[in-house]
């Protein structure tokens, strides 16, 4: 047990144990704990510890483990209870791996991802839950609660939320800045992180690669000012991989790594995920920061205290047998209970997008089913998937479901080609590209004189001209090995760098082949082997393409002979839309689009199954194909779940957690995070989507009625106060003869406001089960405080006096019941200009500007991005008149900076002040400019910038004497 009053005494309070251990550590030992791979302290019997076991939808990179549906699929269940059960299973398996191999199976797990799915082009779309902050927060809390366990003292694992903050693009992700005006920050971005932390479900957070309003997210003052105020427990903050060095290397925010590392610790980063498993550089930089005074021992102590608190809560320093989670062994990994749970999750995640009486398929009398498409007989892992212990595909699931497995007819629907060396390529001209027929493959060469199985390549089109080429000789994919040789050696496209993708580029009467990962073109070496050696198209070897089999025509022919055609399309999770790579459009890959149209033409009794990490624009299919079902990549039990859904053994009842748009033309710029100004997400989008947020059909009709609002102590007019709450009840009934689940969704809409309000906003949801004919009353508690928004005029949340529509229905666009609610909130007064300082970032409207950092550690400002850029302060009250105005101005570089103040209009409104000063101290060197001011009464105030690069931090006004 150790000394009675030592850190090993499990009877002492946590804070006392942590303090005792810290008092025993030297400063050098403390610094050694700040890297991801924490050094052991042998003299105290403290072992090594590392952060960062990936656990997004199962354990990744540790070997075979249960693979559940992708996170976006889990979210599509709209079932917090199920999501928590999945989290608990993953937490158990993390403990199992830790029991098996503590050095590899770490207990600080990096999940869930709570970044909002603001834009479906984000490459990591499958990692998140929803475009809505409430839904994301509820589901993230459920998953994290499952991971952490329910013991009052011990943690099963230590869940870490990813990635704080405003991270929703892969394009230049470590150098782009996410513009988050105050309302977007407070109403949209922060709530998703706050919910699981406030609930005690998540105990750690990872900072994100990007900058926020010009400052690296790893240096955000929100880590201390917001995040750590959400919980009384210690909240650990870990860096993303290589992000500490990015502060200097990619972002150039600090001039050297010693300064950058010191700033990170001061900002609140506790664990440095940098330079792989080697802590030497981190320790050297932090030690130098201590020696130079840029970091104090108190700064280090604050970080170490948080690190140790997590290790204590995981039971590391307690006697054997005291921690109930120690009893979990590797036997739990992919156990039968987890396999069944994976199947249930995959079933409940299925979303029926369209059904024109085509589904469910008949339980008997079905002679044959054609299962077609590039995903019909594949289950693909994604970057954060575990190693699949097994997988049931769509083809396999349907074959197992039908009485006669031979009734399933299959065609992949991909073209089969041979590449023949074009004329002019020397001795190799006229020869075919030939593959090694060994099971593990080998280098390709220009060898065969005639086309045959060893020359055939299956062409898998994943969109944007990106192809994966599979050798028929051994079923393996072409890749480029470390020596640049082209070889048929890869079991599947994947890895951090995907070496299995190519592009066929037309060149006159031939094609050339470009290897996408290296950017090099394929040439034929003197010995006849193919290599990715050419740096330019002019140096590339030309080939002619011979079509061996037309995959689309073959699939259509198979479809024509079957009773029903099920065509399965979607994405490969490692290609075109993944970590490091955003999408540029929403369309299906061209070959897949052709396949869907051809199969439907051959057999109109067609069911389209879309299996994807993100939404697609499938407008043609929605118009023509009678039934469409969507699933995220469903993990190891996908095929069984799909068969259950198609035959109605389990009625699909999932719902979309993000908007499916008709095309990318309905989306704003990927890098513009201001959802309010750009009318983005279902909250503000004013167009007609393909499928709205919350959409999903069922096999049985569900009726709604009897909406009632009841509020204790409600006023005589039925109103509630800003601090009150009400119960919203609605009756739902199953009007069909088939059991079903229904996701009842509660929305509100504020009719009038000082600011632009969401078109409607989710306030609650319940997934309920209804037997045939069953009627159920579903109740929600709605607190008036939940209707608050961020008031930029006073920097706080406010509930306005207003009438709200209370809306209940099956999706954000399918409202079945509505009622009006009066809220006796407050009226926001005009923005007072006199006697106070206006922060430039608290604007109401803008054009031609961006938010920026007012200093390296804290504060926001506004910078013009074009001449005439402006910000607006609506309803500014100048009282009886202002005599003078004052502004804090800076600019990139040095030179003059000027802002013109106008009323009512930024172009031709009356000028009431002209502020200018000479700025010589760089972007943070704000100088004060003053000028006479001639404004009175309540007017809209515009600050108009004279040139790009000019920054404004504050405005203030003096009253007339």
Summarize the structure.
20% of the residues lie in helices and 29% in strands. With 961 residues, it is α+β, with helices and mostly antiparallel strands. It has five domains: 14-330, Alpha-Beta Barrel (TIM Barrel), CATH 3.20.20.300; 350-413 and 552-666, Glycoside hydrolase family 3 C-terminal domain (Rossmann fold, 3-Layer(aba) Sandwich); 423-541, Trefoil (Acidic Fibroblast Growth Factor, subunit A), CATH 2.80.10.50; 700-824, Immunoglobulins (Immunoglobulin-like), CATH 2.60.40; 831-959, Galactose-binding domain-like (Jelly Rolls, Sandwich), CATH 2.60.120.260.
Provide an overview of this structure.
20% of the residues lie in helices and 29% in strands. It is α+β, with helices and mostly antiparallel strands and 961 residues long. The chain has 5 domains: 14-330, Glycoside hydrolase, family 3, N-terminal domain (TIM Barrel), CATH 3.20.20; 350-413 and 552-666, Rossmann fold; 423-541, Trefoil (Trefoil (Acidic Fibroblast Growth Factor, subunit A)); 700-824, Sandwich (Immunoglobulin-like), CATH 2.60.40.10; 831-959, Jelly Rolls (Sandwich). It has a 6-stranded mixed beta sheet. The protein has a 6-stranded mixed beta sheet with strand order 10-27-26-25-11-12, sandwiched between helices. Helix 4 runs parallel beside helix 5 (133-148). The model has no long low-confidence stretch (mean pLDDT 96).
């Amino acid at each position: 047990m150790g000394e009675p009053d030592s850190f090993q005494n499990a009877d002492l309070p946590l804070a006392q144990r942590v303090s005792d251990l810290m008092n025993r550590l030297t400063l050098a030992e403390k610094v050694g704990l700040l890297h991801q791979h924490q050094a052991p302290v042998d003299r105290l019997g403290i072992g090594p510890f590392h952060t960062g076991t990936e656990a997004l939808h199962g354990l990744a990179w540790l070997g075979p483990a249960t693979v559940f549906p992708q996170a976006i699929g889990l979210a599509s269940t709209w079932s917090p209870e199920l999501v928590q059960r999945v989290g608990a299973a993953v937490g158990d398996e993390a403990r199992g791996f830790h029991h098996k191999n503590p050095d590899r199976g770490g207990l600080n797990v990096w999940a869930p991802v709570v970044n909002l799915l603001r834009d479906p082009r984000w490459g990591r779309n499958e990692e998140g839950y929803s475009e809505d902050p409430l839904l994301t927060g509820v589901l993230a809390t459920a998953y994290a609660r499952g991971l952490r366990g329910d013991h009052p003292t011990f943690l099963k694992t230590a869940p870490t939320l990813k990635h704080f903050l405003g991270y929703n693009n892969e394009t230049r992700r470590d150098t782009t800045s996410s513009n988050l005006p105050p309302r977007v920050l407070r109403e949209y971005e922060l709530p998703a992180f706050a919910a699981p932390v406030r609930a005690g479900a998540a105990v750690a957070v990872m900072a994100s690669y990007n900058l926020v309003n010009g400052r690296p997210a790893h240096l955000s003052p929100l880590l201390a000012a917001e995040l750590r105020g959400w919980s009384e427990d210690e909240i650990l903050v870990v860096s993303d991989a290589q992000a500490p060095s990015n502060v200097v290397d990619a972002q150039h925010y600090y001039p050297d790594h010693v300064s950058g590392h010191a700033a990170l610790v001061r900002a609140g980063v506790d664990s440095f995920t940098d330079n792989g498993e080697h802590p030497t550089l981190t320790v050297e930089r932090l030690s130098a920061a201590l020696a130079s005074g840029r970091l104090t021992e108190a700064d280090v102590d604050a970080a170490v205290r948080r690190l140790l608190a997590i290790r204590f809560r995981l039971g590391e320093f307690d006697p054997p047998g005291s921690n109930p989670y120690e009893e979990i062994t590797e036997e739990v990994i992919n156990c039968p209970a987890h396999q069944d749970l994976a199947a249930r999750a995959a079933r409940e995640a299925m979303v029926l997008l369209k059904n024109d009486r085509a589904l469910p398929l008949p339980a008997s009398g079905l002679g044959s089913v054609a299962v077609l498409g590039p995903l019909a007989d594949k289950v693909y892992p994604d970057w954060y998937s575990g190693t699949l212990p097994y997988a049931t595909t769509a083809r396999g699931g349907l074959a197992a479901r039908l009485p006669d497995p031979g009734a399933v007819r299959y065609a992949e629907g991909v073209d089969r080609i041979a590449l023949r060396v074009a004329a002019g390529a020397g001795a190799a001209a006229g020869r075919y590209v030939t593959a090694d027929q060994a099971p593990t493959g080998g280098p390709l060469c220009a060898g065969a004189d005639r086309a045959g199985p060893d020359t055939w390549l299956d062409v898998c089109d994943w969109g944007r001209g990106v192809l994966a080429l599979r050798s028929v000789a051994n079923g393996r994919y072409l890749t480029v090995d470390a020596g640049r040789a082209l070889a048929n050696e890869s079991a599947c496209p994947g890895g951090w760098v995907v070496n299995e993708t190519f592009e066929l580029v037309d060149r006159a009467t031939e094609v050339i082949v470009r290897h996408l990962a290296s950017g090099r073109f394929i040439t034929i070496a003197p010995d006849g082997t193919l290599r990715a050696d050419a740096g330019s198209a002019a140096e590339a070897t030309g080939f002619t393409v011979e079509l061996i089999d037309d995959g689309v025509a073959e699939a259509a022919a198979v479809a024509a002979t079957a009773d029903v055609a099920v065509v399965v399309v979607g994405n490969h999770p490692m290609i075109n839309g993944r970590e490091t790579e955003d999408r540029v459009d929403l369309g299906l890959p061209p070959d897949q689009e052709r396949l869907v149209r051809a199969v439907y033409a051959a057999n109109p009794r067609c069911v389209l199954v879309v299996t994807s990490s993100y939404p697609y624009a499938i407008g043609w299919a929605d118009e023509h194909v009678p039934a469409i079902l969507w699933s995220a990549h469903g993990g190891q039990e996908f095929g069984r779940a799909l068969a259950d859904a198609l035959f109605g053994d389990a009625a699909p009842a999932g719902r979309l957690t993000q908007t499916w748009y008709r095309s990318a033309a309905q989306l704003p710029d990927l890098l513009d995070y201001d959802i309010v100004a750009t009318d983005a997400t279902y909250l503000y989008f004013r167009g007609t989507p393909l499928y709205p947020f919350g959409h999903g059909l069922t096999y049985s009709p569900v009726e709604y009625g009897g909406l009632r609002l009841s509020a204790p102590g409600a006023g005589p007019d039925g109103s509630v106060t800003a601090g009150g709450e009400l119960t919203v009840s609605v009756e739902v009934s199953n009007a069909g003869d088939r059991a079903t689940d229904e996701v009842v969704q509660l929305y509100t809409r504020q009719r009038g406001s000082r600011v632009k309000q969401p078109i409607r906003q989710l306030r609650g949801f319940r997934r309920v089960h209804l037997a045939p004919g069953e009627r159920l009353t579903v109740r929600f508690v709605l607190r008036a405080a939940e209707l608050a928004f961020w008031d930029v005029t006073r920097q706080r949340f406010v509930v306005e006096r207003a009438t709200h529509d209370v809306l209940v229905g099956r999706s954000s666009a399918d409202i079945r019941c509505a009622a009006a609610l009066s809220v006796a909130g407050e009226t926001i007064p005009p923005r007072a200009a006199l006697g106070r300082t206006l922060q430039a970032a608290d604007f109401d409207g803008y054009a031609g500007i961006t938010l920026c950092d007012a200093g390296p550690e804290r504060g926001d400002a506004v910078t013009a991005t074009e001449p005439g850029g402006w910000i607006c302060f609506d309803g500014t009250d100048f009282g009886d008149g202002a005599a003078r105005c004052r502004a804090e101005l800076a600019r990139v570089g040095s030179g003059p900076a000027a802002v013109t103040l106008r009323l009512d209009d930024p172009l031709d409104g009356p000028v009431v002040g002209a502020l200018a000063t000479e700025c010589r101290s760089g972007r943070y060197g704000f100088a004060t400019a003053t000028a006479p001011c001639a404004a009175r009464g309540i007017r809209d105030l515009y600050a108009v910038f004279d040139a790009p690069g000019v920054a404004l931090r504050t405005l203030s006004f003096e009253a007339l004497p």
